[in-house]
Write the structure tokens for this entry.
Amino acid sequence: MVNLGDVFPDFEAESTQGKLKFHAWMGGSWSILFSHPADFTPVCTTELADVQRLSEEFKKRGVKLVALSCDDTKSHCDWSKDVIAYCKKGSSCQDKELSFPIISDPKRELAVQLGMVDPDEKDAAGLPLTCRAVFIIGPDNKLKLSMLYPATTGRNFAEILRVVDSLQLTATKKVATPANWQAGGEVMVVPSLSKEEALAQFPNHEVFDVPSKKSYIRLTTLD
Ligand code: BEZ
């Protein structure tokens, strides 16, 4: 298992864009690795199509994307054509190919190494499938966020984009983002800043009055 703050494993794997050595492939960028139970499955197809539709938004934020599914590279390449066809459903997407690689993990080596095995899902040969994992890795190669969904629940990639906005903001400013925050919205001064530090760094912040009279809800906007 990889914990938050750990250096993400520098694994090597085959992908639809050739052999990939993870840290070299990241090249010091923010990166997202997201796994899928299997190729040619309905929920996975909707997810990859959604990532493709959002790929320009991830690119604007300097985020590299890579998918992983347990099947082999030939299967991934064939499946990618279905995904591209599905991208057009309800959207004007005209992309001809996926803009991100799909890693092959037929022996489940990465699935086991990264703690992504779904205990309930097996392929036709009885081999375990990967769950729907999301790993967001920072430019320092360290894990910043992980999520694990079961195979039967598709993810919301607009939420993952929102999370990237929060991670990138809070990596450079002593703030935290509240529930349902969206880029540009009000943020909270982190509890570790003293009153003096908070005033110096965020002179316009306001303290929300609460019955406890503890001054811990410190709200501010950012330029
Ligand atoms: C799917 O992607 O549709 C799926 C894959 C494995 C189990 C359940 C659903």
Q: What stands out?
A: The domain at 175-220 is CATH 3.30.1020.10 (Antioxidant, Horf6; Chain A, domain 2). The CA atoms of residues 84 and 95 lie 7 Å apart.
